Amino acid sequence: MLSRVADSLYWMSRYLERAEHTARLLNVHLHGLLDQKADYVTERWERVFQSLYVDMPLDPGAKPQVMINTLVHALMFDPSFHGSILESISRARQNAREVREHISSEMWEQLNRLFLVMQQMKEHDIRNGNAYGFFQQVKDGAHLFQGVTDATNSHDQGWYFIQLGRYFERVLATVRLLEAHFEGQRRIEGVVLGNTPYMEWVDLLKSCTAFEAYCRTYSANIDPASATSFLLLHPEFPHSVRFGIGAIRRALDSLTDEIPLLRGSEALRVAGRLQATLQYDSISEIMQQNVQQYLRDISIRCTAIHEAMHNTCIAYPVEHALPS
Q: Are 96 and 103 contacting, i.e. CB atoms less than 8 angstroms apart?
């Protein structure tokens, strides 16, 4: 497979996963406004924006709700706003167009349909509750694309690069969300980590589609250690960090048969070490140390895997592709 094709499939998948994550996160926290005390609204939305790498403007003369509404709208429809849902879906579609012959017609039609829905929705007033329907369409569209991809595309090299894109984005999003959550709790004066308000942990789990699965595994009685363990270390939940790293490792392993340069590569070594760390670390040990540093270390290692994979599979020297 040409490196440009692999790169486009990888980023097509990453951008679509990013759009779905942003839609889910905004949807959860807009619903949460109904239960939030006014004193905590700004603090909680700062965490949301921080997890999405968006700076919340500090304008002492502006009302917090006005700033929040402006940023939420930009994160939905502003094509020039990096990380907005519209920008992410547009980039996913552009990458798909560049490799149109390497994806199924059903994949292209589903992604194009989602893009057209976005174009139509931005012309309508999404206030007064209409935003929730918009977010649901984005989430449903992304999930349909994943299902169509698995059902209609050959599970070959291209499919594995699609998996890499999906799970790299998902792992980094979950880690960043956890990091922002813990940092936000430290900023709130007088709040002890173990006494974090119940609804904040509910919203965190819902932001990772994890609330119902968590309740089936533990109970509706949420405590910080159990919730953190579920999102970090659960081996079977698709949005946990451990599950995502395992999926990345399996995709890289599967690609070694077609890409000999991957055998013994830095990407595989770092992915294997991180997978082992998440498999054998206990939540009690993690909670006793600096949790934010633990999360930052995961982000650093994920970035190292991405860069090593990119250098090996996409930006490799020309002489490495020539027969010896």
A: yes
CA distance 166 to 250: 13
Q: Are 266 and 138 members of one domain?
A: no
Give how far the C-alpha of residue 11 lies from the chain's centroid of Cα atoms, to the nearest Å: 13
Domain endpoint, select from 103, 135, 153: 153
Number of domains making up the chain = 2
Check whether residue 320 and residue 196 sit in a common domain.
yes
Report residue 234 as tokens: 């659960």
Name the domain boundary from 132, 153, 174: 153
pLDDT at 131 over 90: no
Q: Let me know whether 105 and 243 are in one domain.
A: no
Looking at the chain, list the stretches that DSSP marks H as alpha helix, in order from N- to C-terminal side.
3-32, 38-51, 64-77, 85-98, 105-121, 130-152, 157-187, 198-207, 211-217, 224-233, 241-255, 266-280, 283-288, 291-313, 318-321
Reported as a single tens digit per residue, the pLDDT across 213-252 is: 999 999 888 988 999 999 999 999 999 999 999 999 999 9
10 and 91, same structural domain? yes
Closest CA to 172 of 224, 245, 251: 245
Residue 185, domain extent: 155-324
Structure tokens at 13: 């998948």
Burial of 212 (0-12, 13-18, 19+ CB in 10 A): exposed
* Cβ atoms of residues 249 and 270 within 8 Å: no
pTM given for the model = 0.91
Q: Which residues contact 95 (CB under 8 A, 6 or more apart)?
A: 8, 9, 11, 12, 15
